[in-house]
């Protein structure tokens, strides 16, 4: 029997889930499954916001407000605002460059971030547009 520190009821060990983040293997949570579930249901929206904020901070080093403001600007290349907008970043220097639509992001990625390749592509399109 284990005591749930949330509801203060002695319960069978099977009523507790294993805490995979604990330093010891097989360590049980302090709260029973029912209390954990109730806590999650009540705090679901706050939990989602916290997870989103943590992911944005970890991936881009931005706050949620900075991220949302950047996405709201639309694509820095073509000005698109209605398609999916992503935060473009340099993989080599690990820095955020700006918001791009999927199409522009794919074009830059396909060129392997090479300005020479992108200029050659622009020249190619212009040459063939005249015919």
Question: Can you describe what's shown?
Answer:
This protein has 5 helices and 4 strands, in the order E-E-H-H-H-E-E-H-H. The radius of gyration is 24 Å and the shape is elongated. The mean pLDDT is 90. With 131 residues, it is an alpha+beta fold. A hairpin with a 4-residue loop joins strand 3 and strand 4 (95-101). It has helices spanning 33-42, 44-60, 64-73, 102-110, 115-129, and strands at 2-3, 10-11, 85-90, 95-101. The relative contact order is 0.08.
Which properties best describe this structure?
elongated; 5 helices; alpha+beta; two-stranded antiparallel ribbon; 47% helix; single chain; 131 residues
Secondary structure layout plus pairing:
Layout: E1 2-3, E2 10-11, H1 33-42, H2 44-60, H3 64-73, E3 85-90, E4 95-101, H4 102-110, H5 115-129
**What is the count of DSSP helices, taking H or I runs of 4+ residues?**
5
As laid out across the biggest beta sheet, the strand order is 1-2
Overall mean pLDDT: 90
Helix and strand succession? EEHHHEEHH
Number of strands: 4
Q: What separation lies between the terminal Cα atoms?
A: 82 Å
Entry summary:
The protein has 131 residues and is an alpha+beta fold. The chain contains five helices and four strands.
